[in-house]
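Ticket #343: bound-state structure for NAP.
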Amino acid sequence: MTIPVAILGATGYTGAELIRLIEHHPHFEVAHLGAHSQAGKLASAVLPGCAGRVGEMTLAAADAVLDAAIELVFTALPHGAAANSVAQALDAGKKVVDLSADFRHQDADTYKAAYGLDHPHKELFASAVYGLCEHARAAVADTRLVANPGCYPTSTLLPLIPLLKAGVLADVPIIVDAKSGSSGAGRSAKTDLLYCELNESVKAYGLPRHRHAWEMEEWAAGFSGQAIQVRFVPHILPMNRGMLTTLHLSGRDTASWHALLSDAYRDESFVRVLPAGQLPSTAGVSGSNRCDIGVATLSDSEAVMVSCIDNLLKGASGQAIQNANLMFGLDETSGLSAHALWP
Ligand SMILES: NC(=O)c1ccc[n+]([C@@H]2O[C@H](COP(=O)([O-])OP(=O)(O)OC[C@H]3O[C@@H](n4cnc5c(N)ncnc54)[C@H](OP(=O)(O)O)[C@@H]3O)[C@@H](O)[C@H]2O)c1
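RESOLUTION: The complex was predicted; output attached.
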């Protein structure tokens, strides 16, 4: 079975990662590459890693009509720009995995609070499924529109949800301290992402409330039924990819939390709870679709959990492929079996 696929936003970091993954996928085939400012050029002229058949494809304009044969569309576009492309693709009968934030919220007010935009397609909220695969399999398999989770929310929600479901966390704000490689900010030129601004430096940003805080709170409650508050501080690091998130937690029975997490993810291909006493690193997951989680018990009532993902894989394009596999009834791990690139 070959499923023709379109990637809109193919010239960005997540779009390029989708191309790389799909080139090794047993069932998906790149059939259309959409771009914006780079439309009309060859893919190989814009993407240094892109060669062979896909490298020879011409980048289509963002609003180009998609061939009838295309069954699946990945929208790897900036938030705000994605919603119209998603609506058009759905109207044309395609399935869609949207990597932007445009369908991650369940109501337009929350979307506006987080992104400052009026949503042009509120009517699609009801049919969008928030695709945190490990907690949403059945719904993902049954929808035509998946909202692929954000990178920081993925690395926060995966360790948090089992604890919330178990009801062991205290009712206090959760401190989420997270670090990301600079590819998390996308490929477009920005002064604060220049080499000299980032190199040999680490900085916090997005305060007082980064837009992913709304997503974390909404879906922590969505998956567990428990309302939470997060105090989220993201940082940008001078590395290309990778994300390390530290959760400072208090509650009860902390000595049982490692076993609780291990049980929750025992059968998962892409979530690995490390043996007690071990903590993850970004190098351990770079280039893979895995989330590694370490648990450190500080006292009877306090613990720290550290999770690592590759922001471009489990935080974006890898999880998008995982969702697409579920939508087409394929093995969830298809095209995603690569281990981390290490060293
Ligand atoms: N980077 C990450 O780690 C990450 C993780 C999770 C989710 N996401 C989300 O995924 C989406 C893509 O992120 P990215 O990092 O790949 O972004 P990016 O590197 O900045 O790439 C953006 C892509 O969208 C195209 N584009 C820009 N403005 C457009 C417009 N007005 N209309 C249509 N196309 C437009 C660009 O085309 P041209 O190059 O031709 O101009 C490019 O292909 C974003 O919504 C982002 O928030 C990113």
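RESOLUTION NOTES: The chain has a mean pLDDT of 97.
TICKET STATUS: resolved
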